[in-house]
Amino acid sequence: MYEANFPEDTERFVDYYYTYKTADNRILVMENAGKPEVMIHLNPYVFRIFGQAVPVNYVVAVATDVSARRQGKMAAVMEHALRDMAKEHQPFTFLIPANPAVYRSSGFAFVDSEDYGDYDAECVRERLAFTCRDYRLRRAETSDIPAMVRFANALLEREYDIFPEHTEAYYRRMMAEMACQDGGLVLLVGENAQIYGIFSYGRDEERAELQELLVEAEYRRELFMRIREWQPPFSISKMEFMFRILDLRALVPMLRSRESCVLKVQVLDRILPENAGVYKIVIDRAGGRIADISAEETECVMDIAELTRYLFGKAKIFTREWV
Questions:
Q1: What is the mean pLDDT of residues 97-119?
Q2: E runs forming strands in 91-133
Q3: Which of 65, 195, 208, 311 is deepest in the core (most CB within 10 A)?
C-alpha cells in the first residue's frame, strides 16, 4: 500500500523507512474484508517546548486505496488518530499536507517554521565572501554523534522555542536516511575539531537537496556559499507544516511569550470536544495559564485551527522533519 501510494520513493528509501521508522511508530489502518483501505502513520518524536521535553507524533504516510477514496474513510481514521493522541495528552501533532483542505477540516493550520530561503537568496544575490576560511567541511562519522547532539541541542535551545530534540538515535537514523538518498551529514569544523555547523542532504541524479541546517549565526550565510560550491547544483525545499492542538489544557502551561497576551475566547473543536469551552488564556514570560470563564466574558470566537495558528504564531519553531 505504501509503494502504491508513494511511487516517488525509491526502493532503498522504502527499505530504510520500514526498517527504522516502523520499529517504534504506530500505523492506523481501516480494513474492508481484511484488505487495508486507509492508513495513517504516527511517527514519534520528542519535542522541547520552551525547555520541556514532550512526546509528539508526526503524521505521515497518509494514504487511501483508490477504491476507497471520496467516501469519508480517511477523515474517520484521522479523527480516530487525533482522539488517540489527545487521550495521551500530547499537546499537538503536525504534518506536511499534500492537500491542505483535507487537513483544515480536521482542525490543522499552517504554522511558520524554519525556512532557509532568505539566507540562500542573499547568498545568491550578493555572492558573500567567506569569513570562515580557517574552517573546513567534512563528512560526519558515527564517532561524531555525541558531539553533534551537544552542539545541535545547545544551538536550538538558544535560537528556538519549539523544536525536536536531537538525540544519538535521532542522528543514527538521520545518517541511514541520508545514505539511502545518496547523501549524508556534513560538519563545519574548526580548530580542535570543534563543530560550528551541521547540514544534511540527499540527492538524486540531477541535484542535491538541503534537508536540515544547524549553524552558528555568524557563519550561516557564509556556509550557504560553501555548500553551493561544495555540492552543486543545490536546491532547498520550502517545507510548509500544519499543526493541530490536541490537548489545549496541556499545551497552554508550556507556552511562554516575551510580550504578555490575554485572550478571552470561546473555542470550538468538532473532533475533540474536550478542547471546546470558554477560556481566559494568559501567556507571558512566566508561562501560560488557562481558566474557564463565563460566556458573558467572551471577547472572540475561534475554532481550534484558528487558535492553533494564533498560539504557535507567538513561538519560534524549528522543524525540518521529512518522515
A1: 86
A2: 92-95, 109-111
A3: 311
| Rounded Cα–Cα distance for residues 305 and 93 (Å) | 12
* Residue 320 or 133, more confident: 320
Straight-line distance from the first to the last Cα atom of the chain, in angstroms, rounded to the nearest whole number: 17
161 DSSP assignment: S
Contact 280, 291 (CB under 8 A): yes
Residue ranges with strand state E in the chain: 26-32, 35-49, 52-64, 92-95, 109-111, 136-139, 162-164, 184-189, 195-203, 208-215, 234-236, 241-245, 261-268, 277-284, 287-292, 300-303
Q: What's the grid cell of residue 103?
A: 487537513
pLDDT digits (tens, 9 = 90+) for 45-69: 999 999 999 999 999 999 998 888 8
pLDDT classification of 240: cutoffs 50, 70, 90: very high
Cα distances (angstroms) measured from residue 310 to each of 44, 112, 153, 250, 281: 25, 11, 26, 16, 12
- As a whole-number percent, the residues of the chain with pLDDT over 90 amount to 72
Residue 187's SS3 state is: strand
Task: Please say if the pLDDT value at position 148 is more than 90.
Answer: yes
Please tell me the predicted confidence (pLDDT) of residue 119.
58
Per the CB < 8 A criterion, the answer to whether 152 and 159 are in contact is no
Q: Is 79 helix (H, G, I), strand (E, B) or coil?
A: helix
Q: Which amino acid, residue 165?
A: E
Q: What are phi and psi of 2, to 5 degrees?
A: -60, -50
233 cis-preceded (ω within 30 degrees of 0)? yes
Give the burial string for 99-122 (b: 16+ CB within 10 Å, else e). eeeebbebbbbbbebbebeebbee
Task: Kindly report, residue by residue over 23-44, the tens digit of the pLDDT.
Answer: 999 999 999 888 899 999 999 9
